[in-house]
Specification:
The protein is mostly helical. Helices cover 73% and strands 0% of the residues. It is built from six helices and no strands. Helix 1 packs parallel to helix 3 and helix 4 packs antiparallel against helix 6. It is elongated and about 55 Å long. The N and C termini lie far apart (60 Å).
Length: 179
Amino acid sequence: MLHRGRMGWLMIVVSVLIPNIGGIVGGLMTAKSIKNWYNKELKKPEWRPPNWVFGPMWTSLYSTMGYAAYRVWLEYDSPSILIPWQLPWPLKLFALQLLLNWLWTPIFFGLKNITLALLEIILLDVAVVATGWAFYQEDDLAGTLFIPYMLWLTLATALTLAIWKMNPRWRNGVPSKET
């Protein structure tokens, strides 16, 4: 079933790297915000993971979701990803959830809008469950590979909600000078 040879390995590598692009860009964009806003300005629950866990965790999750997408892509005889509107439904869902995933970071750390980030991550939760289910219908392993992502995203959603509750001043972006 899986492609053999150099081309097969190249496609696996590309599939694993593509989801990581947004994570890398997001990490570079938010480093200053994490240091000066997230660490210093926001109240956070005691149960939150330490900052150093997020990078390796997201790298692992982006890699496994990319491999899962590769497996589903093969199930559909390797359709062109250059024409996204012609992709099969499970791969369209994958693209949607990946876009939502990439958008959360600039909303939360860039706009500092916790309310919008909370709404966005809830949409992401729905998209990830739908993608995992759609993947499972095509390839058991591809769907199963989404389970750790769903679990981590549940934690990320709970963390976003807790931060939203604990920081009413930051709910709608940077507070005005009067507040």
